[in-house]
């Protein structure tokens, strides 16, 4: 059981790192001369990248969901770490599973909105941050399923 919990903790750390990288990194959509993330659009002009604002209400929803995914994922790590008290030890798999499910749903909503709304008529490709967001979704979903399975085994 100790190895399983250590593996789950490492999965959480990887998920948090991937979520933070997807949220912070500036490459959700790229072309040769432009890079767009959920915060701004960067244009290559001369020999440097130039910031251009790119804010819409829908993009703010993507930002909020991405940040919430990071927060819920950090809460999962906190619930797992603070499981030394008796009442929390009994409920740690339930709390962690629920927070991980919320994190999973938030990053899925953010990536889905971004896919559906933005860059329909532009030539380019999805950047590494977009791919990292979907990988973080898969990791958080796997972690959520593991927590719900462990909850069944402990009760």
Provide the descriptors you would attach to this structure in a database record.
alpha+beta, Butyryl-CoA Dehydrogenase, subunit A, domain 3, transmembrane helix, 155 residues, membrane, 4 helices, 5-stranded antiparallel sheet
Explain this structure to me?
With 155 residues, this protein is α+β, with helices and mostly antiparallel strands. It has a single domain (2-29, 56-154), classed as Up-down Bundle (Butyryl-CoA Dehydrogenase, subunit A, domain 3). Helix content is 69%, strand content 11%. The protein is built from 4 helices and 5 strands; from the N terminus they run αββββααβα. A 5-stranded antiparallel β-sheet has the order 4-3-2-1-5. It is elongated and about 60 Å long.
Please sum up the structure shown.
The protein has 155 residues and is of the alpha+beta class. The chain has helices spanning 2-24, 57-81, 86-117, 128-154; strands at 29-30, 34-36, 41-45, 48-52, 125-126. Its main location: membrane.
């Amino acid at each position: 059981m100790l190895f399983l919990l250590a593996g789950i903790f490492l999965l959480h750390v990887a998920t948090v790192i991937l979520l933070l990288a997807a949220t912070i990194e500036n490459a959700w959509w790229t072309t040769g001369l432009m890079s767009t993330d959920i915060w701004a659009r960067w244009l290559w002009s001369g020999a440097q990248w130039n910031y251009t604002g790119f804010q819409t209400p829908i993009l703010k929803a993507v930002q909020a969901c991405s940040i919430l995914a990071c927060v819920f994922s950090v809460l999962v790590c906190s619930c797992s770490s603070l499981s030394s008290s008796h009442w929390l030890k009994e409920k740690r798999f339930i709390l962690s599973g629920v927070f991980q499910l919320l994190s999973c749903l938030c990053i899925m909503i953010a990536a889905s909105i971004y896919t559906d709304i933005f860059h329909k008529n532009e030539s380019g490709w999805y950047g590494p941050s977009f791919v990292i967001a979907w990988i973080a979704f898969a990791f958080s979903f796997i972690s959520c399923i593991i927590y719900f399975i462990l909850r069944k085994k402990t009760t």
